[in-house]
Amino acid sequence: MPRVEIAPGNYRDGGPCPDLLDLARDRFADDGVRGDLTVTSGALDAFERGLAARLEPGDTVAVEEPTWSNGRDLLLSAGYQVTPVAIDGEGPLPDELAAALAGGAKAFILTSRGQNPTGAAVSAERAAALREVITRHSDVFVIEDDHWGELSQVPLHFVADAADRWMFVRSVSKPYGPNLRCALVAADADTKARVQGRMQIGHGWVSRILQHFVIAAWTDETVEECVAAAGRVYAERQGALREALAVRGIDVWGRSGLNVWVPVADETAAVVGLRDARFAVAPGRAYSFHGHQGIRVSTARLDPSLAEAVADAVAQSSGPASPPI
Asked: Which keywords does the record carry (predicted)?
C-alpha cells in the first residue's frame, strides 16, 4: 500500500473526504447505484442514524428472517417493532414484503449479497419483483446493506432506490478490515442530509485518517488483487460445503458470503453433535425472530478438503427439518 499523506486536521475541514466520495461515486455507478454520498462509522452506524432520522421508537421495520443478529439487536434496543420477512436463496420473498408493508411497516432492511446467516444473494428477477412491491409503497424507507461489496462473485441487483426515501450502505469492514470503522452511504438527498446532520451534532465525522486509508486501499492495485483473490477463495470454500451437503440431501441457500444456513429439528442437539465431531457452528435462534431451529455454518476458514467431513457431521447431527419460510 502506498504511503498515506494526510494534512493536519481542523474542525473547519472535517467531514467526508471529497476524494473518497469521488472514488465511491465511481464505484457505486459501476453497480448502477446513484445518489448523494456520505461516510459513516460502519454499517450499523449508518443503519442507526438513518432509522433515527426517519422513524420514531415504536414504528415497525420489516426485516429478513433469518437475519443478522447485530442488526436485530440494534432494532430491538432502539424500541422499533419488527415484522419478519421470509427469505430464500434469492433474497426476501415479495409476497411477504407486500404483506409487511400493507400491515404498516415504515422501513425495510435487506441485504444485497452475502446475507448473514444464510448466504443468500438478491437475484435480478427478485430485485425486479421487490422493486415493484416497493413502488406501490413508495413512502417506505428502504435500507440496503451491501457489506460483501468488493468480495462478491455475484453481481449487485440494486433495490433501494425504488422508494422515495432510501439508503444504500457499503461497509469496508469485510474486504479491508473492521478497524477502519468506515462505510460509504448513497441516499436520496434529504436522507443523506439528515444522516450527516446527526453525525455533526454527535462525534462530528469519521476520522479523516481512516478515510485516507480507505482511499489508499481503493487505489492500490496490489490490494485490489488481494481482495479479488480473497473473494474467489471465500466462494470456493462456501461452494465446497454447499455441494457436499447437496450430495447428502441437504439443500442450503448460500451462494455468496461467509455462511450457510441449515434448518434442523433440534439446534441444541445439532450444535453439540458437531462440537463432538470437533466442528463449531452457531445456534440459529440468535438470527431468528420466530425462533426457527437452525445452525449457521461459517465457511470463512473452511479448508475445502474438509467439506466432506463437515457435511457428514452436519447430516448426522441435523435431523429432518422444514426450511424457515
From this structure: Aminotransferase, Pyridoxal phosphate, Transferase
Closest CA to 309 of 236, 234, 239, 241: 241
Summarize pLDDT for 109-165 with one digit per residue, the tens: 999 999 999 999 999 999 999 999 999 998 999 999 999 999 999 999 999 999 999
Q: Where are the domains of the chain?
A: 18-219, 222-318
Write the pLDDT tens digit of every residue in 9-48: 666 667 899 999 999 999 999 999 999 999 999 999 999 9
Sheet holding 107-111, edge to edge: 36-40, 183-187, 165-171, 141-145, 107-111, 60-65, 81-88, 91-92
| HSE value, Cβ hemisphere, 13 Å, CA-based, for 26 | 8
Q: Where do runs of H (alpha helix) occur along the chain?
A: 18-30, 43-54, 69-77, 94-102, 124-136, 173-176, 189-200, 208-218, 221-247, 267-276, 307-318
Degrees (nearest 5) of the Cα angle 129, 134, 136? Answer: 105
Between CA 122 and CA 77, with CA 51 as vertex, the angle to 5 degrees is 100
- CA nearest neighbour of 176 among 240, 115, 219, 206: 219
Q: Are 97 and 137 in contact (CB under 8 A)?
A: no
- As to burial, measured by CB atoms within 10 angstroms (0-12 exposed, 13-18 middle, 19+ buried), residue 113 is buried
C-alpha 153/C-alpha 257 separation (Å) is 9
- The CATH fold assigned to 222-318 is Aspartate Aminotransferase, domain 1 (3.90.1150)
- Residue 3 confidence class, pLDDT cut points 50, 70, 90: low
Q: Between 42 and 201, whose confidence is greater? A: 42
- Domain 18-219: CATH class, spelled out: alpha beta
* Of residues 132 and 8, more confidently modeled: 132
Quote the CA–CA distance of 194 and 56 in Å, as a whole number. Answer: 14
Enter the pTM of the model: 0.92
